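As a representative case, we now present a protein record of this kind.
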Amino acid sequence: MANKTPMTASSSNENPLYVGQLNVPPKDKVLEAFNGIFDRQFYTNHGPLVAEFERALSEYLGVRHVICMTNGTVALMVALKAIGARGDAVVPAFTFPATVQALSYAGLTPVFCDVDPQTHNATPETVRRALTPRTQVILPVHLWGRACDIDGLQDVANETGTSLVFDAAHALGCTYKGRTIGEFGKFEAFSFHATKILNCTEGGCVTTNDDAVADAIRTVRNFHEQQTFVDVSLRVNAKMSEAQAAMGLISLAELSDRISQNKERYHLYRERLSAVSGLHFIDHAGSEASNYQYVVLQVDAEGFGLDRDILVRYLAENGILARRYFYPGMHHAHPYEDRTWRLPITDRLCESIMQVPSGAMISEADIDRVCNAIRCAQRDAPTIRVRLADKTGG
């Protein structure tokens, strides 16, 4: 692959390959930024780098307000608390635990909906089926960076008088009908974890075009009187530090290159695995912009010869740390598993979806290594199935 930033990962079997992006900025740029922090002796409490990062993100996303916080989960929790919603919140069970637990921490009761079998996103239809008389919030997820049917979901929210908000942790740099994710619903929440395409080592933000919502979020995220914009019942220390913002500004400057490199990796995987039966690639956004943050496969056990869990275990034996994603579905995870949820599509996806390694640390040779291992797994499926079938739990 042609890259402006060289990829240095070894393809040796002694070096494990990980799913996360792990975009590490150049050391000299990090040292320069951190030297500035120490020179100013301004480390936190709404420092100049945080303000600069918020302005830069606002311009990049085309949204009025960007409110940065210590991580994506806390950002979602704070924003939910800030809008003052109570009662039930409809959320897909096919998501990361943080999405659902943020609702619980904010005092809302999660009510799970199923997802579309092709996009893996909640839809207006699946949300309607999950609505209750107590529903106050609808929280879909732009999964794999593919936008939900935002217009259809907004129609449901308008009809029911509920707040539509989005978990956009996967969707930085992605679009819906040509418009950048970040300006939709009452707010959208992003993650800048070390494994995300934009990396603050930790961090997150909430975006909104609603001035009143922005004022409430900015007030809830800190205890400082000079940052009080509206009257709120509870506040919390959720501020982003200057060190996180410094990493974010460096990462944002590299974002276009990172996305281009991810796209190359995605298409290399598709090319090298196109002849493997029983593997289905999860398409990205078609004509929409995508960050290609994940390379996601769906394994048809009958067509491939092994089920997903056995394939993941086989790859792990070879130093390839693919992931079952998401597993289990949140309707089967503590503390939400004590109800009987009928979500057949989610159940099917939880048994068949996996991510393979991608991101800055993965070279073309590494992709060849992963693809060769998958082809070997299919070739030797009968032997592998017998050897690993009783070792796939947990």
